[in-house]
Amino acid sequence: MMTGFGIGFVYFGVQLNVENLNFNLYFAVAANAMMEISAVFIGGVLLSVAKRRLIFSQLAFIAGLSSILCILFSGGKQGILDKSGGSWPEFDLEAIEFMAASTAFNVLFVYTLELFPTNVRSFAVSVLRQAMVLGASIAPLLVAVGRYSPALAFLIFGALSIFSGLMILWLPETRNSPLYETLE
Questions:
Q1: Above pLDDT 70, what percent of the chain?
Q2: Taking a C-beta distance cutoff of 8 angstroms, is the pair 52, 107 a contact?
Q3: Can you give the pTM of this predicted structure?
Q4: Which residues of 103-114 are buried (b: 16+ CB within 10 A; e: fewer)?
Q5: Whole-angstrom Cα distance, residue 89 to residue 76?
Q6: Residues 77-81: contacts with CB within 8 Å, 24+ apart?
Q7: 135-154 pLDDT per residue, tens
């Protein structure tokens, strides 16, 4: 649930946080949509060749690191490193962050389906979805804070994404494991 809350918070929050980028809002939203379409296919390929926990944790770390690096280019009208407005570097890092979070979001659903036995699988996926929605419902508050301090918003998105990637490492791997029928 904590992993679901974290990745739901980041996945939905990053989509809303494009308004705090030093970039054209309409182009940023369109680019995020293209990133999400690509993430579905990339996630499918990664799921067929790699371990689920490893995929999720690496994607969460990439999203978190990208978000934290966005701090270098945020800061109102001008970024710390790029005095011309910080548009392209910040935009590129945000796109990487969103693509990684979107792919991790999709991988987490597959992982949850494989993790729990049949008699509680539907309930487990429902609880995961509720945790993600809870994260999504709180994310707009951070986006509002990001209007005044973009660096703080990027830091919290990054830290929560990295935390989600760490939390999944305590769970068992499910790739090439049988789907269990009961808890026993």
A1: 93
A2: yes
A3: 0.88
A4: bbbbbbebbbeb
A5: 15
A6: 77/22, 78/22, 79/22
A7: 999 999 999 998 888 889 99
